[in-house]
Inverse folding.
């Protein structure tokens, strides 16, 4: 006889005694004696034929410790943990269940102890094709499997009507990054909106004596792409609430800490994150962004082809990174991290700066010089890892780089 059957038999026997004596039982006391829930005992007293549901094992039981550990991080939400655990990159460890069932399991086993906070803001909607909101999630940190720290920023853009999102990894948050990322976003969406809303970031405005002055190059950029730039009031993030909400998705990357191989692996995670979020039902519209986007994309304006042509002219060449980690530009060589050896990268020049991109992401920037060999210190050190003793790397790096000057 199973333990549950034994508990049921014992409870029925006790309840029968009370019925015979005509006394209403103390359900709480019987529950304590038999090990059943008080409400279950009450139901059994009122209905002799009540059937108890057996607790069937869940497919998530073997992941319970991992789920609890993930949700133990205050910055990891239930949805973020679900995205990580259902990621196809986990292979055989990928869980197979719906978000609804996952949430019920977490709540049933009390695996998430965080209490959400709520702030009230009035809702503001825009028509299709009217607005894009963009921002940065700055100073993000994630470690590789080997403990290498990757510092990065996440560019976030959201269409106002459909909530269609676009994310991009960036090392810096300069004017050049803003222009590049916005163009990538508009290319991703297939057109431009009438206006773009963002906050008063230093790469866009200069604030002196409470006066905001947009940088001339930024003014010209938005004029060229025929998009009106709008700046929200300082300390008013709710003004661009759709983008602020999208920024919360950056926390979906938290479960990957110490689990990615390198930056390339991180790029791929962000790509999958982007795809999954656009398929996820939005709480406000009650539909996935990708569904509403079918309506919005027809209202977008055509992106200025001259801007694209001008940008593409700057992509001077495509090159496969050799074993030296050095790519060639106008008679000189410039380094990238050795992890990109064998990868095809794009070279683009803007004034005296050379940028090297992989999958539209800037992986290295160099000041264009007359030197034949231009190694970044971090790239050179990365190339020495595993070849010499760690204690000797700094010394050897300093000696060899001095020879290239």
């Amino acid at each position: 006889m199973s333990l549950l059957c034994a508990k049921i038999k014992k409870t029925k026997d006790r309840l029968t005694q009370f019925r015979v004596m005509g006394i209403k039982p103390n359900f709480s006391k019987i529950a304590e004696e038999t090990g059943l829930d008080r409400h279950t005992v009450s139901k059994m007293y009122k209905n002799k034929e009540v059937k108890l549901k057996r607790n069937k094992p869940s497919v998530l039981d073997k992941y319970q410790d991992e789920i609890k550990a993930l949700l133990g991080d205050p910055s990891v939400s239930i949805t973020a943990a679900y995205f990580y655990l259902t990621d196809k990159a986990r292979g055989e460890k990928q869980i197979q269940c719906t978000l609804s069932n996952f949430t019920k399991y977490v709540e049933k086993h009390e695996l998430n102890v965080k209490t959400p906070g709520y702030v009230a803001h009035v809702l503001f909607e825009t028509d299709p094709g009217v607005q894009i909101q963009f921002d940065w999630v700055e100073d993000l940190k994630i470690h590789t499997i080997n403990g290498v720290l990757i510092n990065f920023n996440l560019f976030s853009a959201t269409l106002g009507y459909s909530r269609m999102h676009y994310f991009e990894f960036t090392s810096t948050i300069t004017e050049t990054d803003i222009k590049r990322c916005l163009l990538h976003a508009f290319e991703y969406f297939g057109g431009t909106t009438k206006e773009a809303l963002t906050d008063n970031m230093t790469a866009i405005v200069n604030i002196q004596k409470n006066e905001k002055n947009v940088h001339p190059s930024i003014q010209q950029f938005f004029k060229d792409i025929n998009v009106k730039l709008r700046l929200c009031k300082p300390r008013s993030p709710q003004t661009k609430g759709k983008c602020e909400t999208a920024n919360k998705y950056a926390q979906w990357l938290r479960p990957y800490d110490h689990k990615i191989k390198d930056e390339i692996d991180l790029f791929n995670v962000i790509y999958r994150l982007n795809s999954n979020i656009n398929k996820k039902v939005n709480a406000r519209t009650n539909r996935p962004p990708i569904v509403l986007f079918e309506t919005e994309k027809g209202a977008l304006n055509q992106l200025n082809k001259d801007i694209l042509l001008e940008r593409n002219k700057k992509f001077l060449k495509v090159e496969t990174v050799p074993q030296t980690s050095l790519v060639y530009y106008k008679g000189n060589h410039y380094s990238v991290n050795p992890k990109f050896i064998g990868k095809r990268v794009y070279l683009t020049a803007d004034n005296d700066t050379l940028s090297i991109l992989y999958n539209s992401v800037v992986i290295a920037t160099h000041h264009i010089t007359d030197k034949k060999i231009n190694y970044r210190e971090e790239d050179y050190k990365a190339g020495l890892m595993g070849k010499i003793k760690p204690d000797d790397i700094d010394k050897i790096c300093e000696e060899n780089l001095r020879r290239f000057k």
User: Anything to note?
Assistant: The two ends are 83 Å apart (CA to CA). The chain has four domains: 3-46, 61-108, 131-299, 305-403.
